[in-house]
Design brief:
The protein has 111 residues and is of the alpha+beta class. The protein is built from two helices and four strands, in the order E-H-E-H-E-E. The protein has one domain: Translation Initiation Factor IF3. Helix 1 packs parallel to helix 2. The model has no long low-confidence stretch (mean pLDDT 80).
Length: 111
Amino acid sequence: QLSILKIDVEEWEWPSLPEALTSGALDDVSQLLVEFHLTIKPQPRQARYLHSLLLLRHLYLAGFRTFYTSRNLHCAFRQIFDGAHKAGCHEVNMIRVKSVKFADLDIFEDR
């Protein structure tokens, strides 16, 4: 069993976390600490937001719950609607509250 897994891979969390979930690589992880890079470029498109929410849903279904978040303001973008500065990266710390094998979940019906 792996107590803590820290991931900060500069936008590669988006392809690597779904693969880790489906392969079972996260089945024995107790805590998952991830810096999510929503964008390190101009404001992300709607599809990026939806993909992000879907990944968070999959982590939730796999038994992970967020216990701490923090915005990383070194990774910011200017919103196109009102010019406001927004954090493009977020530190998200999760703990597994129930043991669920991701492969046993039927979550791909919305693809």
